[in-house]
Design goal:
The complex is a heterodimer of chains A (about 220) and B (about 400). Chain A is an alpha+beta fold and about 220 residues long. Chain A has twelve helices and two strands. Chain B folds into two domains: about 210 residues, Glycogen Phosphorylase B (Rossmann fold); about 180 residues, Rossmann fold (3-Layer(aba) Sandwich), CATH 3.40.50.2000. The two termini of chain B are about 35 Å apart. The chains are: A alpha+beta (about 220), B alpha/beta (about 400).
């Protein structure tokens, strides 16, 4: 079995949720908040939100879309916001720009809705991450599979979903290591194609483990 | 006299593995290992009764098992002090404050007495709720990080009362709330922590059917008919009379019983009066069961929730409403008010149904009684939601993360 020179170090990220002094009670205020909130806030309401609600695989995408639907009753805008796939973004600035563009365009087309009061306010928060090693590392594909099977939800989210913001690549930590350290681009690609919107984190973890198992010929 | 609570280790951390998964338990150990044993101190105002005491009863042993030296202290005071803190509590929930201005002096004097008695020397000192908030005046003598954990709904505090408390709160290094709506204009960082339940506690573990039936028999409740239940202490902010009004509407359409199960906490002098009002409102209806339970009745509460067709939490104001998480954990459909931390637990149409009035509560109950398949789905998703966010292990993880963050200079 091939052995990597650089072992894969499994980490976990634990998040503290900080409440910001920023609220939106209308779509216009949401647009303003999207402009002024921190990157950690955009991360919390999109990348982190998907992790927090991963068990709801029907009708949940990010906090902004959920608020626009549930508190503002604007289904069209909610669908547009929900349609953004965070996996296409390698920088939060790009994601923020698209969120702002969608909300601003809608407000321009529907000025009456832009200032209509929501049932309840949207509270901007931000996620402050603390990264901790889990004491698990892998040099071979077998060790890697064993490591994946021992991962918490937070660790899986860190390596598989949030990682593209660190790597600034359209990939994840797992695929990046499998391709560049073990020379397995096919497996890396198959893992990167797993749909995180229609799978729970447990489901995604099981799919990754199965793909590795197939690669190992087991 | 100051009392330091010591709790037996009845449950081991590994016992949570079948519930949350071994990786989640291993993650807790990894986070705790990174902290390398700081001393932690929790301080609140009651050892028994109410959500805070329940959380600390389980959180403290878990952090102990993670090899973190932790102490839990309970402040003491006379009846006058607890009448003041009850009035402060109601005023922070948005009510008026009727006590004379001298009451603030009594409040501070009791805090000073406790400060003299308590040894507050932890690296991390967590003060729970307003009752002991002024202990922060002792921080000059005790280095370390001081955190104020506010469990109550501060979304519309009485301005005069908040003006009194705010100078104390701003001396802390951080404040923690159960909902973003409770955050205030403060110069310190404010964080969001959800309260939690312990799935292995007597109140939340799965009971044998015989035990459940035994409790129903004891209280004369018929298992063969719909049981609607609200579990909460007898407090006007829980609107028990409003629940009876909603039940009377539902009763026109469904043969059902109502159970109002609660008790009175040590620090709540109003409980007796509210219980009398509830008994008066229920008079003449044998299908309304008013159960004034002793402060620690976990098996009875568990059995009543388990046997219920549907759980109600019709609070007018709410810090968080742990009884909602308890019901969701038991996969029960929940109809609850959209106040305080409840909407964080009941994601409308995903994990339960929200209501805003007596009539709305009655309608949502009727809707779920008419649609049992949907009720079951909401209950199932509610269980998942609690597993992810509102278990004691998640709460322990949040504290570990906070301590790591503060130590790193955050």
């Amino acid at each position: 079995m091939q052995e990597a020179e650089r072992p894969f170090q499994f980490l976990t990220a634990s998040y503290l949720i900080r409440i910001l002094d920023l609220k939106a009670t209308t779509l216009a205020e949401l647009a303003k908040g999207l402009e002024g909130s921190s990157d950690a806030s955009i991360f919390y309401h999109t990348f982190q939100s998907l992790s927090r609600h991963h068990f709801l695989t029907e009708g949940f995408s990010n906090d902004f879309a959920q608020w626009v639907l549930a508190a503002c009753n604007r289904a069209e805008l909610a669908e547009q916001l929900a349609g953004l796939d965070i996996r296409e973004y390698t920088a939060l600035a790009e994601l923020r720009a698209d969120l702002r563009r969608i909300v601003n365009d809608y407000c321009e087309r529907h000025p009456a809705f832009a200032t209509q009061q929501a049932f309840e306010a949207f509270s901007f928060c931000e996620a402050l991450g603390v990264t901790t090693p889990l004491g698990i590392e892998a040099r071979t594909l077998g060790e890697f599979r064993a490591g994946v099977e021992r991962l918490s939800h937070a660790s899986l989210h860190y390596h598989f979903i949030a990682s593209r913001l660190r790597l600034h690549l359209q990939t994840n930590d797992f695929s990046n290591w499998l391709e560049n350290s073990l020379g397995l681009p096919g497996l890396a690609s198959r893992i990167n194609r797993i749909d995180i919107y229609t799978n729970t984190l447990d489901g995604a973890s099981a799919l990754i483990a199965n793909l590795i198992k197939e690669e190992l010929g087991q | 006299m100051t009392t330091t609570q010591t709790r037996p280790r009845l449950v081991q951390l590994d016992d949570y593995s079948p519930i949350i998964g071994a990786p989640e338990v291993a993650e807790l150990r990894a986070l705790a290992a990174s902290l390398q044993g700081p001393s932690i101190q929790m301080v609140n105002s009651t050892a028994v009764g109410g959500g805070v005491a329940e959380i600390l009863t389980r959180l403290v042993p878990i952090l102990q098992e993670l090899e973190l030296p932790i102490r839990w202290d309970v402040i003491t005071g006379g009846n006058d002090f607890f009448e003041i803190t009850k009035a402060l509590h109601n005023a922070l929930h948005g009510g008026s404050y009727q006590l004379p201005p001298e009451s603030f002096g009594t409040f501070l004097a009791t805090n000073e007495q406790n400060l003299a008695r308590l040894q507050l020397d932890g690296e991390f000192t967590v003060i729970h709720d307003p009752q002991p908030v002024a202990l922060i005046q002792g921080r000059n003598q005790h280095l370390g990080h001081w955190i104020w954990r506010c469990h109550i709904d501060l979304s519309r505090p009485n301005p005069a009362v908040w003006q009194f408390l705010e100078p104390w709160v701003r001396k802390y290094d951080a404040a923690i709330y159960s909902s973003p709506d409770f955050a205030q204009k403060l110069p310190i960082p404010q964080y969001l922590f959800s309260p939690c339940i312990d799935p292995l506690s007597e109140k939340s573990r799965e009971l044998d059917p015989e035990v459940v039936q035994g409790v129903l028999d004891h209280y004369g409740i018929d298992a063969g008919r719909h049981i609607l239940t609200q579990v909460s202490r007898f407090d006007r902010l829980k609107d028990p009379v409003g629940v009876i009004r909603a039940y009377r509407i539902v009763k026109r359409y469904f043969d059902c019983q109502l159970v109002l199960a609660g008790g009175k906490a040590d620090d709540d002098p109003e409980g007796e009066a509210v219980l009398s009002e509830v008994n008066e409102a229920a008079k003449g209806d044998p299908d309304i069961h008013i159960l004034n339970l002793p402060p620690w009745s976990p098996v009875e509460i568990n059995a009543l929730q388990t046997a219920s067709t549907l759980i109600i939490q019709k609070s007018l104001r709410e810090g968080f409403g742990l009884t909602v998480a308890e019901a969701l954990w038991k996969k029960k459909p929940v109809v609850a008010s959209a106040v305080g931390g409840i909407p964080m637990q009941v994601i409308h149409k995903h994990t339960g149904l929200l209501a805003h009035s007596v009539e709305g509560t009655a309608y949502q109950i009727r809707f779920l009684l008419s649609n049992p398949a949907l009720a079951a789905k909401l209950g199932q998703q509610g269980h998942q939601h609690v597993r992810e966010h509102f278990l004691i292990t998640t709460n322990a993880k949040r504290y570990l993360t906070l301590f790591l963050h503060l130590r790193s200079g955050g």
